[in-house]
């Protein structure tokens, strides 16, 4: 098997609360025009609350070595600057490291802007290009953004301008009090639209340890991830919070429950919602099926159900089964309340599916006719034969009708 090269061309770390108290006060993420973005987005560690984001023009082996060295350094208590500096020992490799309380730094091969925002609101945007390590000091509100263009990107040549403009806009949002998770998503949208470096990748909330997981990463080797500036889901404008992910969302123009209009949620907006902690935040884990779309659609359904009914495994199972019956979720059997593992204290829900056998896409219908009879009807090759079966089934009803 030949796996194509991968390198994140856009790496961003944002810190809006260097005390680490705001659950949404630090975020990081990566994306690129290249394939195989799951190889380049390293979101570590939920327990250590730091991120290691990689990229560069070097080969995969030294990049992996640089990442491992940086992770080990952070786990041993090193500063982001010391960990990022290790990338300078590897040709063409870039490592961007950050935490909420220790700041951030980038080392190796890079073109970045370091953004700092003082307590009086002064924004400073400073360019750096492969000059040792570039540092966002601990205790400072700010960000680091790296951006280069990928060969073959139709928007090649835009990176320098977009890198600067996005850095300035992030500084303004930090100054104006937006959360780091929101700023990360907005920056992703701007970079995707204006530079073409648009495929996930993903993001992580460094304080709360929530990541986008495989929401946007490629489903198959040697393919691109999800474009961050394209529609990801449709969400009901009513209070029930119903939503559905693409591509199934293309079939819906209104909320199937109350007919209310649907609004489009773009992927960069879905990233914000996935890693931002709110009173309605739900972490959904899906087990039993890796089919494309099932995890995303299940997450949307569970989040909407929790919003309306709370952490009720019966209601969650009912909503999921409705989606299965309507064909929104395919390839899995109906779930029961016991298949829904709810932990309301940690705002987590686990959904355990059982894949259907025999290449079925949906469970058998629950009809008041035996399956053996359906098999018999399925084997009848003529309309006359089917009519005879119907006459046998409903002869008493027909006789009563004629008598009346």
Automatic annotation (TrEMBL):
Residue spans crossing the bilayer: 376-394
UniProt keyword terms in alphabetical order: Membrane, Transmembrane, Transmembrane helix
Protein name as it appears in the record: Uncharacterized protein
């Amino acid at each position: 098997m030949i796996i194509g090269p991968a390198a994140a061309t856009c790496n961003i770390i944002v810190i809006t609360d260097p005390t680490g108290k705001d659950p949404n006060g630090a975020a990081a993420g990566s994306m690129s025009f290249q394939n195989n973005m799951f190889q380049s987005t390293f979101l570590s560690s939920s327990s250590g609350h730091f991120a290691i984001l990689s990229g560069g023009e070097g080969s995969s082996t030294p990049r992996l070595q640089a990442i491992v060295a940086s992770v080990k350094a952070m786990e041993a208590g090193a500063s982001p600057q010391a960990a990022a500096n290790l990338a300078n020992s590897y040709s063409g490799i870039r490592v961007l490291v950050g935490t909420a309380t220790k700041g951030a730094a980038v080392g190796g091969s890079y073109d970045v802007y370091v953004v700092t925002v003082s307590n009086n609101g002064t924004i400073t945007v400073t360019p750096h290009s492969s000059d040792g390590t570039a540092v966002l000091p601990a205790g400072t509100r700010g960000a680091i953004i790296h951006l280069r263009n990928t060969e073959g990107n139709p928007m090649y040549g835009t990176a320098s301008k977009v890198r600067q403009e996005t850095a300035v806009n992030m500084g303004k949002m930090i100054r104006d009090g937006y959360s780091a998770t929101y700023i990360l998503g907005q920056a992703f949208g701007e970079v995707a639209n204006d530079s073409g470096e648009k495929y996930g990748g993903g993001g992580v909330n460094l304080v709360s340890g929530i990541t986008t997981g495989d929401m946007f990463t490629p489903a198959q080797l040697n393919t691109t991830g999800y474009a961050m500036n394209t529609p990801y889901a449709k969400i009901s404008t009513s209070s029930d919070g119903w939503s559905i992910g693409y591509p199934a969302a293309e079939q819906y123009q209104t909320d199937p429950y109350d007919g209310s209009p649907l609004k489009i949620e773009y992927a960069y907006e879905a990233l914000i919602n996935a890693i931002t902690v709110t009173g309605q935040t739900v972490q959904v884990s899906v087990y039993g099926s890796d089919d494309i779309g099932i995890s995303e659609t299940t997450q949307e359904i569970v989040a909407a159900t929790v919003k309306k009914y709370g952490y009720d495994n019966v209601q969650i199972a009912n909503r999921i089964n409705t989606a299965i019956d309507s064909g929104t979720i395919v390839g899995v059997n109906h779930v029961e309340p016991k298949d829904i593992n709810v932990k309301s204290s940690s705002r987590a829900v686990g959904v355990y599916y059982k894949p259907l056998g025999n290449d079925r896409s949906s469970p058998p219908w629950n009809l008041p006719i035996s399956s053996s009879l359906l098999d018999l009807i399925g084997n009848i090759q003529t309309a006359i034969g089917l009519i005879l079966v119907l006459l046998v089934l409903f002869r008493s009803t027909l006789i009563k009708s004629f008598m009346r």
